[in-house]
């Protein structure tokens, strides 16, 4: 069991330039199955390592299809360049265990300078920009531990991560017509190990560690059995919108997430979930000063979509 930065570590296999190895950490599981976002983080980390010495080191888009459950055991990521280019490169990567292909991914890499994206192309004060989606509760003002929300049952990494939910968003899920047919959820999500920082690869775990409509809507609406609302991830896509800022005005281990989840359908109550991942101005409950206009300073780091 290891903090996230250590748990997604990979190494290049000595006899191949395109195969990376590691071990799936059992702690980053839901029940006995490793979290799908954690598994995708392993693949992304392998591809980032592979591209780190090239002119196109930055992941722009990732699309994953989960074919078989993974196990807490050694793995290999096999990388193949599909289409190289001057501005973009398309990569195919497979995570394999014991000779089985468990996850297929297609990734697009480019070159995003570190300071690009620290402000939206559409100015915040224009009235046309995407506003910061959480309500006005600041992470530093959360009371600890009372302001934290327990992770759902079965999350084995509850000691490595905690949440502070946005109550103004969740309460709307029990009011008919309030959300236009979407369940909504917002929270500050924080890695508890103070030496661990959120990275480009680990955003994949964040994207798959949220609540969706199966948890959020009343059971008489979804038809679900209480406590039996988790579904395995079938597909997960991430579009990276901005690099993680290095500025001290942002937390290194906390992000804000905003979730919309809907389109409940057969078979097996499948639904689509959209997750926006934003910077956070401070750690949860740090008691620091709340700057005026802090919400307008936040940056959308990634937008993820999945079918679960």
UniProtKB/TrEMBL annotation:
| Record-annotated Acyl-CoA thioesterase-like N-terminal HotDog domain positions | 25-109
Record-linked Pfam families: 4HBT_3
InterPro entries from the xrefs?
Answer: Acyl-CoA_hotdog, HotDog_dom_sf, Sec_Metab_Biosynth-Assoc, TesB_ACOT8-like_N
Gene3D superfamilies reported in the protein's UniProt record:
Acyl-CoA thioesterase, double hotdog domain
Q: Which PANTHER family match?
A: CHROMOSOME 23, WHOLE GENOME SHOTGUN SEQUENCE, THIOESTERASE DOMAIN-CONTAINING PROTEIN
UniProt name for this protein: Thioesterase-like superfamily-domain-containing protein
